[in-house]
Write a structure and sequence with these properties.
Blueprint (H helix, E strand, L loop, with lengths): L9 H16 L4 E7 L6 H21 L9 H17 L2 H7 L2 H18 L10 E7 L4 E6 L1 H4 L8 H12 L4 H18 L16
Parallel strand pairs: 1-2
Antiparallel strand pairs: 2-3
Helix pairs in contact: 1-8, 2-3, 7-8
Length: 208
């Protein structure tokens, strides 16, 4: 079964937005799901691959039996560098291979916290906003919770439920796996933050 594409697929968006409404109906938390194509520029990977291509070209010039015109070597090496960098920038698996996982994790974490503030998720009346931030290139999710959620932490929750959501994205699970993980978080929210009598929907349910 294919994993979620996280692209502009109307059916996927509708299902995820329906999931947000479902979870929010059973608790007083506000959930926002934000999807980004990537969380960093990662030009260093492109430049590294370009340099590798240029180095291979230099080795061919030095050690290969055929003789090359010396005047053509500098522009040829520059062309190899540029071509390698452009190729790497457009081949996601290669780019991920050249980037440390720790760097990707830091970029996603920083971007998620920035999105949490930029989207006003910290402005709910009970400080119970939750951001599920998904970065497609890194294949990572970062769940950011407001202080109203943190105050209710107990018995390993919601930490374990949050890790379940993040694993569902990292492992490329199909929609059913992601929905199940979010519902698991919703189960804890239902117990820790039951709906208020005057509950209102403070944040949009649309996938951002």
């Amino acid at each position: 079964m294919a994993s979620i594409s996280w692209r502009k697929d109307g059916a996927e968006r509708a299902q995820i937005e329906g999931l947000i409404k479902e979870v929010e109906a059973m608790c007083s938390a506000e959930i926002v799901i934000t999807v980004r194509p990537r969380s960093g520029a990662y030009r260093q990977a492109d430049y590294l691959f370009g340099a590798i291509c240029a180095f291979v070209g230099l080795c061919v010039y030095i050690y290969a039996p055929p003789e090359f015109t010396d005047d053509l070597v500098p522009p040829a090496l520059l062309l190899l560098f540029v071509a390698g960098a452009v190729f790497c920038a457009n081949v996601a698996p290669l780019r991920r291979l050249l980037l440390p996982k720790a760097l990707q994790a830091r970029q996603v974490r920083a971007a998620a916290r920035e999105a949490f503030l930029d989207q006003g998720i910290a402005g709910t009346r009970d400080r119970t906003g939750i951001l599920i931030y998904i970065s497609v290139f890194e294949r990572r999710a970062e769940v950011v919770t407001d202080i109203g959620i943190l105050r209710r932490e107990s018995d390993g929750q919601p930490g374990e439920a949050i890790r379940g959501v993040e694993r569902a994205v990292a492992e490329g699970l199909p929609m059913e796996g992601f929905v199940s993980a979010v519902r698991g978080l919703g189960g804890w929210l239902k117990e820790a933050l039951p709906p208020r009598a005057d509950d209102i929907n403070e944040l949009s349910d649309e996938v951002r």
